Amino acid sequence: MAGDVKTKLSKNLLRMKFMQRGLDSQTKKQLEEEEKKIISEEHWYLDVPDLKEKESYIIEERSFLRCEDLVYGRMSFKGFNPEIEKLMIQMNSKCKEEEIEEDDKMEADVSDEEMARRYETLVGTIGKKFLRKRDQRVLKDDDEDDEVEEGNSNPRPSKRAKKMFLKPQD
Amino acid sequence: GTAAEALVGQVVLPGDLLLLPGHYDEDAESERLRLSAGATPQGRLLCGPGLRRSGAGLLVTKCGLLRHRPAGGGAYWVDSQQKRYVPVKGDHVIGIVTAKAGDVFRLDVGGSEPASLSYLAFEGATKRNRPNVQVGDLIYGQFVVANKDMEPEMVCIDSSGKSSGMGIIGQDGFLFKVSLGLIRKLLAPKCEIIQELSQLYPFELVLGMNGRIWVKAKTIQQTLIIVNILEACEYMTAEQRKQALAKLSGN
């Protein structure tokens, strides 16, 4: 019965989305290809070689605002309208700011090297403050051992063992 | 055609063809050779009002003086004189409210069509909090849509949502119309006329690119004096203006 129903369904119906959800990818691809074939055969195209459009670098502009450097249209003088006077300073300095924006590098008060040095020591000292007691002890021992035996690459099993997880014995 | 640089600062007439550096030959290949030799145009060239792009050069469409700005890729435009304003996107203008149609105000800006301004285009305006705009009020705003196919639309806020001086212009004061060329002269940075006037009395001034100026001073007489000077500035020379101002500050 199901097989009979399938053969009676039209191609357009089968192409609809809800019918294609159950299909596997291969049949889907086939249907797509068939569709493309139909479209490309009907598709009209010009039998003329492509014209290369010259890249034009001229922009047409109808506004004077972008050509000339005009100030803001609202003005007030001798304190007649203080808000407008504030606005005047703001708007006219905004125009100048756009020119200055190109040189944005600020001179640093502190040089990069000094910054790195300070940061190194700072992070270490503050970081130690927030360590847990266990880690603080380890750090202290490490420092002492480092001072006594420099260049000793032997691991200290007793201290390392403390850190590792010891499985509870049954 | 002639080279564009040669005509900067001179009178050009409609129909003149201006050639740009690097494009003296019509042939595309020789153009590439030239570009490496001569002064290459860096970036995009701005073709301002009064000029149209035509092939490799610029075609003049209005009569006036040719101006040039070398910064930012270069710009050429024609400094022409006219009284009739044509709405342009981005221009700040003074409009007169002629009608309230539902949620939109109709403003007369001196163009061929009334501009529309939505009541939400003010700073801090919401559907409940409407701006207090009546018919006959003056509004200072800018165009967001202005082309020959559509009705111009205005707003009174800028791209970040702030009003930055736009909106309803207050009570009193005097509105009058001048030519567009004078407005641009007054809006030039460090304009002498404005500097000299600012020494006279305290006053407030709003200049719209559509040729409208609004002035307000402490007394009616002072307002009218400023109006008369601004109107006469169009045809006075600098010396005449200075004489007139000297007489005024003497009185």
Number of helices of chain A: 8
Question: Which segments of chain B are poorly predicted (pLDDT under 50) over 5 or more consecutive residues?
Answer: 23-41
> Tell me, what's the shape of chain B?
flat
Mean pLDDT across every amino acid position of chain A = 74
How many domain modules of chain B?
A: 3
Region (Disordered) (chain A): 140-170
Protein name (chain A): MPH6 phase
GO biological process, one term (chain A): maturation of 5.8S rRNA
Organism (chain A): Catharus fuscescens
List keywords for this structure.
heterodimer, A: about 170 residues, 8 helices, flat, B: alpha+beta, OB fold (Dihydrolipoamide Acetyltransferase, E2P), Ribosomal Protein S8, Chain: A, domain 1, 3 domains, five-stranded mixed beta barrel, four-stranded mixed beta sheet, 5 helices
Verbal overview:
The complex is a heterodimer of chains A (170) and B (251). Chain A has 170 residues and is mainly alpha-helical. Chain A is built from 8 helices and 2 strands. Chain A is flat. With 251 residues, chain B is an alpha+beta fold. Helices cover 20% and strands 31% of the residues of chain B. Chain B has helices at residues 28-37, 180-186, 192-198, 220-232, 238-250, and strands at 2-3, 11-12, 17-19, 45-47, 51-54, 57-60, 64-69, 75-79, 92-101, 104-108, 115-118, 138-145, 153-155, 167-169, 174-177, 203-207, 212-217. In chain B, the strands form 4 sheets. Chain B has a 5-stranded mixed beta barrel. Chain B has a 4-stranded mixed beta sheet with strand order 1-3-6-5, with no helix packed on it. Chain B has a 4-stranded mixed beta sheet with strand order 2-7-8-4, with no helix packed on it. Mean pLDDT of chain B is 86; it is low at 23-41. The A-B interface holds A 54, 56-81, 84, 87, 91 and B 20, 28, 41, 43-49, 51-53, 58, 67, 69, 75, 77, 88-92, 140, 164-165, 184, 187-189, 194, 197-198, 201-209, 216-218. β1 of chain A pairs parallel with β4 of chain B, so a sheet runs across the interface. Chain B: One of its GO terms (biological process) is poly(A)-dependent snoRNA 3'-end processing. Chain B: Belongs to the RRP40 family. Chain B: Residues 10-81 form the Exosome complex component RRP40 N-terminal domain.
